[in-house]
């Protein structure tokens, strides 16, 4: 995963389920935890879910340190025995991965959060479509500009009813554009948890980078000043999109003094949505 770190697993346990989601954290070669990973997410309760679609706002992070990562993604966790596997698609700024600070589309998968899995096309896993409108690792421009305009991409990883693979589409072009798929073997079990996630990663010896726009969400619900997930839809077993059932959704913010999120609610011209984010400087 770069920066001279190896990966071990930690556990994120939800109050509404006996299961724990396994997350990755970086360590040095001596086994000492070196990285903080912070989230602002809304996620489903464990169940028979078949995918998510959402507009994800695109925000840059031009002053981000080389070792840091900041972004937003749609995550799908599939139970595999006593743990969960993960497939993920979204956008991030990750200088250690790309050697620059461009906002890039990424995919990620892991079956054990240790040795199996990778970003983008660095190992066998996600299969890109020929001539796709976005390929893993591709820069996405322009980023949103604070107070001026917001830029988004509408993504949907969902389970194909025929192949049972997890297909990824882009929906903000003239017609839906097939980007590729995660083979069913990477995420086959149930129950599943689906999450809309803003995230940051940073060395414990440094302060955290901005999440989203670098500003806390507020009561104004302003798309031009804070990051968002918008027009959220679930998918059923036949590949049909439908409005989420809010009773199935629950929030997680693991460092609320640094990063926050709003309620998950329907809105005019926004559908089901929420805003999230926070400034740089987080400690701990």
Automatic annotation (TrEMBL):
The keyword Signal applies. The keyword NAD does not apply. It holds the Pfam family Neprosin. Keywords: Signal. Residues 1-24 form the signal peptide. Residues 30-283 form the Neprosin PEP catalytic domain. InterPro entries: Glutamic_endopeptidase, Neprosin. This is Neprosin PEP catalytic domain-containing protein. It comes from Triticum aestivum (Wheat).
């Amino acid at each position: 995963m770069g920066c001279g770190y190896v990966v071990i697993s930690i556990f994120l346990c939800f109050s509404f389920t006996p299961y724990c989601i396994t997350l990755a954290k970086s360590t040095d070669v001596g086994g000492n935890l070196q990285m903080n990973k912070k989230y602002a997410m809304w996620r489903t309760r464990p169940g028979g879910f078949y995918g998510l679609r959402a507009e994800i706002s695109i925000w840059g992070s031009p002053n981000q340190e080389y070792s840091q990562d900041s972004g937003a993604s749609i995550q799908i966790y599939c139970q595999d025995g006593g743990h969960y596997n993960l497939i993920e698609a979204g956008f991030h700024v990750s200088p250690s991965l790309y050697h620059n600070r461009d906002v890039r589309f990424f995919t990620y998968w892991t079956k054990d959060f240790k040795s199996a899995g990778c970003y983008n096309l660095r190992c066998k896993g996600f299969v890109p479509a020929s001539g796709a409108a976005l390929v893993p690792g591709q820069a996405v421009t322009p980023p949103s500009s604070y107070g001026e305009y917001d830029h988004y991409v509408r993504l949907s990883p969902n389970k194909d009813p025929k192949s049972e693979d997890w297909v990824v589409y882009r929906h903000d072009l003239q017609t839906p554009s097939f980007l590729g798929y995660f083979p069913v073997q990477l995420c086959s079990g149930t129950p599943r948890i689906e999450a809309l996630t803003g995230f940051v990663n940073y060395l414990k010896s440094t302060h955290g980078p901005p999440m989203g726009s670098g500003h806390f969400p507020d009561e104004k619900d302003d798309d031009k000043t804070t990051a968002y997930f918008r027009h959220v839809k679930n998918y059923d077993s036949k590949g049909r999109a439908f409005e989420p059932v809010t009773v199935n959704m629950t929030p997680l913010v693991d460092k609320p003094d640094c990063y926050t999120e709003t309620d998950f609610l329907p809105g005019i011209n926004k559908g089901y949505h929420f805003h999230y984010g926070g400034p740089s400087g987080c400690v701990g």
